[in-house]
Amino acid sequence: MHQKLLKSAHYIELGSYQYWPVLVPRGIRLYTYEQIPVSLKDNPYITDGYRAYLPSRLCIKSLFILSNETVNIWSHLLGFFLFFTLGIYDMTSVLPSASASREDFVICSICLFCFQVCMLCSVGYHLFSCHRSEKTCRRWMALDYAGISIGILGCYVSGVFYAFYCNNIHPSYLTQQWQRLRPIIFCSVSGYGVIPTLHWVWLNGGVSAPIVQDFAPRVIVMYVIALL
Q1: What are the Cα distances from residue 189, in Å, to 3, 129, 170, 219?
Q2: Given phi > 0 = left and psi -120 to 50 = alpha, else beta, which region is 177?
Q3: What are phi and psi of 50, to 5 degrees?
Q4: Which residue from 35, 60, 97, 140 could staple onto 125, CB 3.0 to 4.6 Å apart?
Q5: Which residues are annotated as a binding site for Zn(2+)?
Q6: Domain segments of the chain as ranges
């Protein structure tokens, strides 16, 4: 049995530890900072323990080896299971025992779901950042940032909801006095989307660009429908 373990052990170059025996799937090795692709060189102070040049299958298998991404991967993966467990516990025990309203259930569900998405996206990025395709790595990085944005959204929605939980709508909001002000408020909120739309038009070469001419009418129709 001992000999079989030794045969399955691969000596992996890990910085100053030239031969460090670690039980890992065949085909995986660790690299120093100087050996990895430029796209992975984010922090020169992390000198070794890098995974690189791996296909998707070995990226997944590298979940169970010790590298400089191990803590990142497992902390987010365990975080996902933590929020998943909290979600089940809150929905089945905490909120019902507190006689929570339907709105409380919705807000808590949105919040915990956003946190879970954030954790999973980070797991995916840290797990597949060593992929042999730089394009794949970039896509996972973009997904990680999207997950962070979704997590922030979860904090924002729940924070705003409970911060103003005891405050009712302005007493004059639905009165005749605010009849003209209400449309202005809604138009202002809708108009906020014009800024990124103009930025998108500029990035794509202006109104004469084919992609802008294809999508701009659809965007305009959406705004018209919203105003109606």
Answers
A1: 69, 38, 18, 16
A2: alpha
A3: -90, 140
A4: 140
A5: 126
A6: 54-167, 171-227
Average pLDDT over residues 37-41: 90
149: left (phi over 0), alpha (psi -120 to 50) or beta: alpha
Average pLDDT over residues 7-28: 47
Instruction: Write out the binding residues.
Output: 126
Q: What is the pLDDT of residues 124-159, one digit of tens each?
A: 999 999 999 999 999 999 999 999 999 999 998 888
Collapsed DSSP state (helix, strand, coil) of residue 155: helix
pLDDT, tens digit, 9 for 90 and up, residues 100-131:
999 999 999 999 999 999 999 999 999 999 99
Residue 197: burial class (beta carbons within 10 Å; 0-12, 13-18, 19+): middle
* SS3 state at 13: strand
SS3 label, residue 22:
strand
Residue 226's H or E segment, with its range, is helix 210-227
| 101: helix, strand or coil | coil
What percentage of the chain has pLDDT greater than the value 70? 86
